[in-house]
Predict the structure.
Amino acid sequence: MRTIKSYVKRKGRITEGQNQAINTLWTKYGIDYSKEFLNFPFIFNNNNPVHLEIGFGDGESLIKQAVSNFEKNYIGIEVHDPGIGRCLMNIKKHNLTNIMISSHDAIEVINDQIKENTLERINLYFPDPWPKKRHHKRRIVQPAFLDMIANRLKEGGTLNIATDWAAYAEHIDEVFSHSDHFICTERREHDGELPFKRPRTKFERRGLKKGHRIWDWCFKKI
């Protein structure tokens, strides 16, 4: 996989509560990065299907999904400490046992820690669109990314994407049109009223306030 990062790690404002959550809850809910595959039945203490969310932000959608679906396990990946801290606080608040989170580059986590054919679903909600042309190489949706994702999904597993940037929507359609790994089972363009199988996110609300439209896709591994 490429070494170009699809994100820039900025030092955000972190509250005392968020910082305390990281210091006290990480050992219980955190997954440290290593080059060893994760044993899902061991870390979740069950054999339930596993969903992975890339770049969960403040964890809003991740928490809502876990609260509503106790029969699923969730792994969230995020590199920004304030969002990690807030997500940990909400995991504790809801007493959730079906979430684990990683604070590392998503490409390396998936490549080095996720076994082949083990994920039921991968969610990529409102990734950084990198709108400037010279930055397009930083967009996470690239042919090599699809190859890696397809390898980790089970047969019939899905990759679910949402964006509020028209140019990125065109890029996503273009990249998937050349992939032999996925078929698009659903595509929606809407004004926030027709998302499917996902909670609304902070980034979605922010985009709608700016007058952006929303694009949602469900791609199935074939």
Q: What stands out?
A: Strands lie at 30-31, 50-54, 73-77, 99-102, 119-125, 153-163, 182-190, 214-221. The mean pLDDT is 92. The two ends are 22 Å apart (CA to CA). Residues 16-221 form a domain with the Rossmann fold fold (CATH 3.40.50.150).
